[in-house]
Amino acid sequence: MTLTRVNSNDHPELYQLIGPIEELYQLVPIGQIDVSSDYVNYQLIGPIHAINDAVFYNTLALSNQLEAPIQLLAIEGPPLFQLVGPVPRLARIRCRFANDSHKLVDLVWTDNNHRMYRYAKLAHTDFIDITTFEGHQWVFCDALDGELNSLNPGRVKKFIASVHQNSHRRRLRVSAISSVEGLTLKRVILRLLASKIFDHWNSTDCCDCRSIGLFLESLRLPVCIQIQLANFLISCILYQFKFDSNRSNIGQKCLFDGLPLIHFPFSFTALFMLNPSVNKIRFSKDELDKILRNADEQRDFPALLRSLGQLAFRPTDGFSLPSSALSQMASHFASLSPFSAFHWANGLFALLPSAENYANSEVLIVSLLRSLVDNVPLLNANKLRAFVKTEISRQCVSFWQIGKAHLASALTLCVLRILLMELSYLEAIQNGVCRVDLIAEAQNIWSQMLSADELLKVDPGAFLRLSSSLFHSALGLDYPLTNPLEANIVVCLKKCSNEMGSENGLGKCDSLYCASLFDLLSAHLATFCQILPGDVCRAMFEFLIAHSERDNLEILLKQLAKNSAIRCGECCEKVFRSLCDLPMPSPFNLEEIWSIETKSSGKKETQAQKIDESQLSWASLLSLSDECLANSLVGVSNAKIESIVLSADFAVFQPEICLRLLISLMKIKRTLVIPFRCEFVHLILAEEAPKSRSLEFGAKLLEMHAHSADSDAFPVKSDFVSFCLAIFQPIDQLDCDQCAKRDFLLAELSFLRALFSVLPHLLTSFAPLIVQLLPDFFVSSNFYRRTLREWPESRFADRLEHSLALLCREIVRRKKCFNKLLPFVISSSLTGDRELCFPMYLLFSALDENDLALLSSNLSAAEKLKFSRLKVQFYASNKIIG
C-alpha cells in the first residue's frame, strides 16, 4: 500500500481555491500476474512523465516483432486493424483493456511509424475487449494532457514470457491504475485548473476574449502560476490536437472548426504564439502538402477547411493565414488541371451557406477561392470561368447587400479577373468567338453586379468605383468621374490608408478589404495612372505606400520607375511628383528612383540610329540585336530584304545565328515572302540537336507561304514537311539539358499546329505519322505536370499543356483525316492519370460509340482500367458542361 500526501502550507492561497485534495488520492494495490485465472492480470504502474512538446512513446511491447494487424471494432479513429498478408499461428491475443484508475484515460495503439491512434476513451471501471497480436504496442494516456501510465521495467520479461506461454489459451487483462509517485501540490493544482478551464470551454456556447478573460481573472492566480498554467494548457491542446483536431471541443473551439476563435489574455497569447510546438501545428510545409493532396484525392473540402483553420490560429490578430501557407497553396493551385480547379471551386463554394454565421470560415473559403482563380491557368478552364461568372458573381451581390464588403471585394476581384482575361485573349484562341459578343456578355455580367444602386453606398472604400473604371477602360469606354465622385474616392482612399489609427476605420474585417483593394491597384497600376485624375492618383499612391510592407515597398517603387506606361510624359511627372510629398520610410528616397528614370530616358536617346538602306547586308543584320533590328528595318521595303536573303552566303556563318535572323525577319516583317532555297535545308541539317530553331523556322516558313499567290516560291511543300517531321525525336532520346528538351517540345507542337492551319490538304497522307508522334507529347505533359510543381518552373507545364490542347483542338476539327486512328492515339497516350486532362478530353470528344467499343475490347487489363477511369470522368464532364 502506498499513499502520498501533500503539504497545503506551501501555497495557502492556492489551496483555498480548490479545497481539500485528499480525495484525489486512492489507496492502490500493486497488481500481480495470476496465471491460474481466466485472465492474465497485469497492471500498469509507475510515475507520470511531464511532457510539453510531444507524447513520450512509452509502450507495452508484447514481443520484438510487429506482425500484420487484423480488422476489428474501433471506437474512435480510422480502421487500423486491417488484414495485410499472412497472419502467423498463435499470434493473436485476446486482451481486455480496463481502467482501474480514478481518471479518464485514452487507450492508444502505436504503429511502426510511432503514429498514435486512440481506440477508446475509458472512464473509471470501463473496459474494452480487443483481439490484437504479439508485438503490437498499446498504452494508456491521460485524456487531459496525454501523460502516460508507464510500465514497471522490472516486470516486462516475466510478463512477456507469460504471454508467449498462455496467449493461445488465455486472455490477457491490462489495466491502468492511478500513479501516486512524484505528485506535488503545484502539479495537482495545475491539473485542476486546466480541467476547470476545459469544462468552461465545453459548457460555453460562445467563447470569446471577454468571457475567458473574466473567468481567468476570477481565479486571481500569481503571475508565475499563470505562466505554468499556460504551458500546461499548451501541452493539453497539443495532445488533443493529435486525435481531436476534427471532432473534439478543444479542436473546435480553440483551434478552429467553423466556430469563432478564442482570444486568450495577453500573457497566454504570448506563450501560445512563441511556443515552437504550437507554431509547428500552425504551419508545417509537409503537413500542408498532405492536406492539399488529401483534398485533391478525397474531395473532402470540409476537412480541408478545418485543417487550414488550424494553421490560421492567430489569437492576437484575428483570422489570417501565414504568407508561406498562401504561397504554397498558390503553387498547388497552379498545378491543378482545369477539371480539378472546377471541382475545387464548386466544393469550396458549396461550404459558404453552412459558414454563414461564422466569419472566420467565410474568410477562409473566400481566400481559397480567390487564390484558386488567381493561380489556375484560365484559358482552358472553361467550366471554372462559367462558374465564376454565374454563381460567384451572384454571391458577390449578396455579400455587398448584407454589408460584408471584405468578402465581396475578394470575390469581385475573381469576377473582374475572368472578364478582363476573356476580353484580352479569348477571341484569339477560340473559334467562333466574336469580340462584340464578349463585350456584350461582360457588360451584362458587370451591370448585374452593380444593378442595385445601394451597392455603391455600402462600399466603404471606393473599391467598386475603381473596379468599374478599370472595367470600362478595358472596353475602350470612359468612366466619367465627376467632381463629387472624384472627391468621394479620394476621401475613401485616405480612410483606407489611415484606418489603422482612425476611429472611423472600416471595422474589424477591414484587413481583407484593404488587401483586395491593394491587389487591385498594384496589379493594374499603369492603367490606373493613365485613367485617374491627379488627386485620385495621389491618394492611390498614398494608400499603396501605407499598406506596403517594408520589404515590398522598394520593389513597388522600382516597378513604378521601370513601368514603360508610367514613364511617358505627364503621367510620369504626375506619379513621381505625387510621391515626393508623401512620407517615406527611412531607407527609401526618390533620388534613386529619379536616377533610374533618367537612365531609362538616356537609354532611349542613345538607341541605335536607323541604318541606311544601301548599307544593309546579311553580315550587318547579323550583328544587330532583335530590338535594334526592328528599328533598323523601319521603312525598308520587303523587296530589299528578300534580295538580301537570296544573296546571303549561309555557309560562312554559324547555322544557329542564320536561323535566328531568318526567324526574326519573319516576325518583324509579317508581309515578307522569302522564296524557298535549298540552302535552308543545309542550315537545318547543320544545326546541332535538338533542332528547335529549325522547327520554328519551318513553321514560320509554312505560315509565310500559306497565302502566297506565287506557287513557284515554295514548290516542294510536301517534301519539306516530310523532312521536318523526320527531325522529331522522343524526348528521352535527346542528349541535352532540360531547358533544351523543353524548347524542343514546344517547337515540335508549334510546327504541327502550323501544318494543320496552313496545309490541311496534306493531313490525310501525314495522319499515320502524326498519330505515332502524339503519345510522346501526352507522356511528357504528364511528366512535367507531376515534377514541375513549384513556380516559375510550373509555368512550362502549363504552356506545354496549352500547346497540346490547341493541337488536339485542330485534330478534332479535322477528325475526318484521322478516320479510325484516334482510338490508337488514346490507347498509346494513357499515362495512368487520375485526372482527365483537357487535351485528352478533346480527343475523347472526337470518338463515337464504335471507337469507344474498339478501345474497351482491345486494351490490356491495366490499360483498360486507366481508360475506364478517364471514360467515367469524360461522361461526368459532359453532364456538367451541357
Key attributes of the depicted protein:
882 residues; VHL_beta_dom; 5% strand; globular; VHL_beta_dom_sf; 8 strands; mainly alpha; disordered N terminus
Please explain how this structure is put together.
The protein is mainly alpha-helical. The protein folds into six domains: 26-176, von Hippel-Lindau disease tumour suppressor,  beta domain (Immunoglobulin-like); 185-229 and 238-281, no CATH class; 285-458; 484-606, no CATH class; 609-727; 759-882, no CATH class. It is 58% helix and 5% strand. The strands form two sheets. Strands 1-8-3-6 form a four-stranded mixed beta sheet, with helices on one face. A hairpin with a 5-residue loop joins strand 4 and strand 5 (116-122).
Number of helices: 39
Summing up helix and strand content along with how strands pair, one would put the structural category as mainly alpha
Overall, the morphology is: globular
Radius of gyration, Cα only, in angstroms? 36 Å
**Alpha-carbon distance between the termini?**
78 Å
Mean pLDDT: 66
Percent strand equals: 5-15%
Overall tally of domains: 6
Helix share, percent: 55-70%
Sheet with most strands: 4 strands, mixed
- Give, in spatial order, the strands making up the sheet with the most strands: 1-8-3-6
Number of strands: 8
Return residue spans where pLDDT drops below 50 for at least 5 consecutive residues: 1-90, 149-170, 205-210, 245-283, 312-319, 499-509, 601-608
